[in-house]
Amino acid sequence: MAKKAKNFKKSKTGVYVSLATTAFGAVSVAKQAKMARNDGDMLRLVDAAVSAAAIVTGLAILYRELKRLGDDDVLLG
């Protein structure tokens, strides 16, 4: 059972779950950025921008991993 859970992250399903949770984090960052703009808080706005950059990088890495797994999904090319 432990071996199954260990290899889950490298499976297509695991990558899809990671993509979904990372995208869900983007919603939180968008809310943070909107609140920072409304309050005029530059430090929170910079924090939101850095977090957004991390999310974009994470999504790119997960996309690359999905391509490596040989997904035949027509949306991925």
Tell me the total number of β-strands: 0
Number of helices: 3
CA-based gyration radius: 16 Å
Shape: elongated
- N-to-C span: 34 Å
Strand content is under 5%
Helices and strands, in order, run as: HHH
The residue-averaged pLDDT reads 83
Class by SSE composition:
mainly alpha
- Helix fraction by DSSP (H/I, runs of at least 4): over 70%
Low-confidence stretches: none
Largest sheet: none
Q: How is this structure best described in words?
A:
The protein is an all-alpha fold and 77 residues long. The chain is built from three helices and no strands. The radius of gyration is 16 Å and the shape is elongated.
Describe how the helices and strands are arranged.
Layout lengths: L1 H7 L3 H28 L2 H27 L9
Quick overview of this protein structure:
It is built from 3 helices and no strands. It has about 80 residues and is mainly alpha-helical.
Structural key phrases:
77 residues; 3 helices; mainly alpha; 81% helix; single chain
